[in-house]
């Protein structure tokens, strides 16, 4: 097995995500609508098992990825968000697969370390990780198991056939089977996928360590916390006493391009710092150690998709994790491994392997429409934060991005 990587392992989403390993349980309505009850129930169960499997991998191979199985809190941070996740959790309960329980408000605010939260549902089936440590640990284990890895080796061309021919600046590779695991970079590399995802940033900051302040505010576990916005706030602490906070849905790319800003400090640092101060007034004056961002591949459904893309039947792909890939990528690995081996199992029979389940409009409609919807969401959520009724048009426009939320609204 040979792996080539254009940069270093971890330069993409795997090394710069927010470290919130979540299941698909809160996306149950979407799963049932797309795949039916039986498959939706199976995928919720498998997605929760993937959280535990990541921890088991770290333990088995001695990977110190700061994995903490401390669960997740889905919260409301303004009155308009209160009750918004009740419907999907009720559906999980009806199917016998609900891991959430509603916590008293005092417990929610204590666990989350912030009085901004007005309600909260807690599930133990979630974890926080340090993504860079995890991906470099994966690299080490892969090498130990005999995988050959060539970093700083970009694929410059792919010629279908048996074997397939991959071109790189350093030479050619012949492969009986090829897996393309390029995430946001797939849209630009293969024109047939250009409209299958929208490339949009998620932006993050991390503070300097202040473990004493974390003790004071009560954010002492590795619980991941997410509010009920469409472009959510998400955060967790770190073992050395920092707060990592992020927010999605900021910079949109035209035509699937990889913008230079994606590899630079976040242009939304001011917004992130204000959000940090609103959630944690005690951290308002704590220095920010770093900000960053990166491109996420937002699919129409908010879920990844997989398939086979060559006439020879030996080139496989999977992407579209939509900013929620830390946990589900473990399922993606099982899907791709099953496809490559030609197995007949629940993964290869899953509708997830049918390729994209929707497409965005062509450019420039997609880009301009994305900005219109993004700005409508900002106005809507700003009004809700201030206790005002949002404009009807903004509410309607915001529905176009409903799949971007971490939890389906009932």
Main features:
410 residues; alpha+beta; 8-stranded mixed beta sheet; 3-stranded antiparallel beta sheet
Description:
The structure is a single chain. This protein has helices spanning 13-16, 28-35, 37-61, 86-94, 105-112, 131-144, 186-189, 211-217, 269-279, 329-340, 365-385, 392-398; strands at 2-4, 20-21, 72-76, 101-102, 119-123, 127-128, 148-150, 157-159, 164-168, 171-175, 178-180, 197-207, 224-226, 233-237, 243-252, 288-299, 305-308, 315-319. By secondary structure, it is an alpha+beta fold. The strands form five sheets. Strands 4-5-3-13-14-15-12-16 form an eight-stranded mixed beta sheet. A three-stranded antiparallel beta sheet has the order 8-9-10, with no helix packed on it. Strand 13 (224-226) and strand 14 (233-237) form a beta hairpin. 43% of the residues are buried.
Helix content: 25-40%
The SS-based structural class is alpha+beta
Overall geometric form: globular
User: Ranges with pLDDT <50 over ≥5 residues?
Assistant: none
List the helices and strands and how they pair.
Elements: E1 2-4, H1 13-16, E2 20-21, H2 28-35, H3 37-61, E3 72-76, H4 86-94, E4 101-102, H5 105-112, E5 119-123, E6 127-128, H6 131-144, E7 148-150, E8 157-159, E9 164-168, E10 171-175, E11 178-180, H7 186-189, E12 197-207, H8 211-217, E13 224-226, E14 233-237, E15 243-252, H9 269-279, E16 288-299, E17 305-308, E18 315-319, H10 329-340, H11 365-385, H12 392-398
Parallel strand pairs: 1-7, 3-13, 11-18
Antiparallel strand pairs: 2-6, 3-5, 4-5, 8-9, 9-10, 12-15, 12-16, 13-14, 14-15, 17-18
Helix pairs in contact: 2-3, 11-12
């Amino acid at each position: 097995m040979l792996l080539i990587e254009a940069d270093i392992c971890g330069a993409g989403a795997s090394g710069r995500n927010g470290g919130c390993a979540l299941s698909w349980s809160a996306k149950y309505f979407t799963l049932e609508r797309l795949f039916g009850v039986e498959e939706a129930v199976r995928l919720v169960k498998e997605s929760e098992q993937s959280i535990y499997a990541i921890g088991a991998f770290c333990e088995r191979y001695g990977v110190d990825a700061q994995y903490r199985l401390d669960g997740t809190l889905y919260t409301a941070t303004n009155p308009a968000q209160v009750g918004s996740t009740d419907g999907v959790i009720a559906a999980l309960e009806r199917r016998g697969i609900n891991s959430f329980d509603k916590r008293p408000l005092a417990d929610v605010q204590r666990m989350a370390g912030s009085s901004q939260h007005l309600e909260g549902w807690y599930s133990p089936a979630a974890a926080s990780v340090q993504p860079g440590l995890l991906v470099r640990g994966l690299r080490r284990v892969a090498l130990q198991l005999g995988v050959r890895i060539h970093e700083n080796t970009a694929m410059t061309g792919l010629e279908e056939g048996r074997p397939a021919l991959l071109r790189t600046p350093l030479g050619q590779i012949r492969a009986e089977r090829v897996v393309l695991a390029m995430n946001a970079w797939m849209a630009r590399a293969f024109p047939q996928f250009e409209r299958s995802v929208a490339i949009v940033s998620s932006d993050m900051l991390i503070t300097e360590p202040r473990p004493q302040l974390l003790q004071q505010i009560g954010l002492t576990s590795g619980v991941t916390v997410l509010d009920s916005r469409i472009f959510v706030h998400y955060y967790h602490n770190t073992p050395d006493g920092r707060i990592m906070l992020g927010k999605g849905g900021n910079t949109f790319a035209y035509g699937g391009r990889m913008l230079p800003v994606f590899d630079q400090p976040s242009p939304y640092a001011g917004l992130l710092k204000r959000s940090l101060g609103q959630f944690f007034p005690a951290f308002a004056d704590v220095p920010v150690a770093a900000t960053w961002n990166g491109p996420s591949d937002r699919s129409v459904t908010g879920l990844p998709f997989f398939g086979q893309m060559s006439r020879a039947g030996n080139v496989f792909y999977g992407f579209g994790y939509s900013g929620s890939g830390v946990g589900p990528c473990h399922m993606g690995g099982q899907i791709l491994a099953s496809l490559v081996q030609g197995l007949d199992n629940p993964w290869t029979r899953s509708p997830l392997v049918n390729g994209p389940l929707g497409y965005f409009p062509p450019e420039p409609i997609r880009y301009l429409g994305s900005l219109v919807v993004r700005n409508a969401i900002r106005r809507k959520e700003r009004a809700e934060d201030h206790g005002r009724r949002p404009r009807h048009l903004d509410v309607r426009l915001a529905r176009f991005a409903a799949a971007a939320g971490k939890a389906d609204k009932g």
